[in-house]
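User: I'm preparing a small set of examples for a lab meeting where we compare how different chains pack in three dimensions. I only have the primary sequence for this one, and I'd like the structure in token form so I can line it up with the others. Please keep the answer compact; I'll paste it straight into my notes.
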Amino acid sequence: MTTPYKYLPVLSPVYRSLRRVFRRFKYAGEKVTCPLCENNFNSWVSDPEIGSCPACDSESRHRLLWLFLQERSEIFHRTYKLLHFAPEDCLIAKFKNLSNVEYTTADISAPKVDVHTDIVNLIFEDNSFDGIICSHVLEHIPYDTVAMKELFRVLVPDGIAYIQVPYRRFQKTDENIDITDPIERKKRFGQFDHVRVYGTDLKQRLESVGFEVSEEYFTPSFTAQEQKKYGLWDDVIFCCKKPNLRVNNRLKGDSSFVSRENMVY
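Assistant: Understood. Below is the structure token output for the 265-residue chain.
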């Protein structure tokens, strides 16, 4: 049986190409700059201050993450194995152009990724990646702690997972995996397929599986003019480091081997 989905792979790229051409004219200007595609425009789409890029569709969180990684990560400075779960097109193009990065994209069902795998049961071996990018994924996952354990497992010791989520800075996490009605989910969690909105206890959740976590508010490092130029808002990036237990034990005078079974998840 023929379905409309048969034509989506063809129509979607054509539509996006035509839309980009239209937007280049509609948003032509020099007021804002996208650090991902490096184009200038008069404003962003939807929200003039922090909307999406007319050319590459980057959102504020993507632009913030890219700027943060350029300034604060090792990704650009050495041979690096990077896993990007649920990757966004605007970032895929940038990472694929880095000759020093062995870049793997993954998702449970998205087309064109390198590997199809479930975040709560990743097919990768232990200690496979130097870094992981996981942006706006965990709020979809009913058993998010299981996903966090998997991200921890596939990181190398001293590796870092860069995690972004919808976040309420001064409230506790609001969640209910038993809510399945899309309308109710959108009303309570902001999107039809979300099961929670994270809050102040997220850091503790990530630490409970073994991560050393720092909450990074990078936007204030830019001037007000730069924030407006790049379309940034004061979002948080959770930098989740997998401790090097061998090194830590040696520093404590204990050089015994730490097996996976003895790790804290």
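A couple of notes for your slides: The radius of gyration is 20 Å. The first strand starts at residue 32 and ends at 33.

User: Perfect, thanks.
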